[in-house]
Amino acid sequence: MMEKKPAKNKTLAIPCPQCTVKAKVPVDRITKEGLIYACPKCKTSVLATRTGKGVSVRRATTAEKTDRESAPPAKDMPAEIIKGAPSWIVTFADLATLLLTFFVLMLSFANMDIVKFQDLMGSVQEAYGVTKAERGQFQAVSKGRFADVDSNIKKSAEVVAREKLVDIIYDSVIRAGFKTNASITSTDEGVRVRIKGRALFDPGKSELRPESADFLKELSTVIKTTKDLIVVVEGHTDDRPIRTKKFPSNWELSTLRASKVLERMLKLGAPADRMSAAGYADTRPLFPNDREETRPLNRRVEFLFKRG
Questions:
Q1: How confident is the model at residue 111 (pLDDT cuts 50, 70, 90)?
Q2: pTM exceeds 0.70
Q3: Which residues pair with 2 in a beta bridge?
């Protein structure tokens, strides 16, 4: 049951218990016996009764409609519908406002510097052997000279060959189960494959781990089946000194590790005239050696694939 206090004006807005649409009802017509009137929208018979606390509103029963006076026609008792927004519109408005705010923030965060973006795209294209001679979007920035390569030129044969070699080596790494221990990069120097030190050797040791057999076999097959391919095996360590009878310094350790890898690959069929090994100790770190989390990354074996 809903209760409304009588307003001071001549009409009172009373909601229909059926459709909740409010109708203006004359206050002086609402008595203790009650006033029955029809809802102007759904035509439900509504009983409005004056109480000590205000006005009580509910649906009128059939008996009450028979016993009491029915509401007068609409022209005699105006029951104006008070129009208002449905209840769900408030939640919808809040959602729309939040979405608008979200997209405004996304747009502000995604605001890019067009000039820097064009320079970046130009650098990427130049790195892959494609530059533009004419002015336009995504051209490489050349200081002191202009790009003289036609924009429609295809990739050079050398670049295409390196890309194919990267795919072949990647497949070999996957077959050997060394995906988490290997990284492959392609530069003008050639294709470089980096293997984490622990994947091939135990710390401070130069004996190959059994898990390295499949990987070295796959790599040896690539060298055998690819013509004019020269491979340099490089050994690298971190800056922690080692002083043993077998390894007076990191130079001996890195060189012997590279030699061990080379010897194993020669036994697996790699051509000796296209293989070489070198040790660089801690002279070519990938990361600073002053942090414990980056120092192990400098202990590695690298394979540099070059065209002869």
A1: low
A2: no
A3: 57
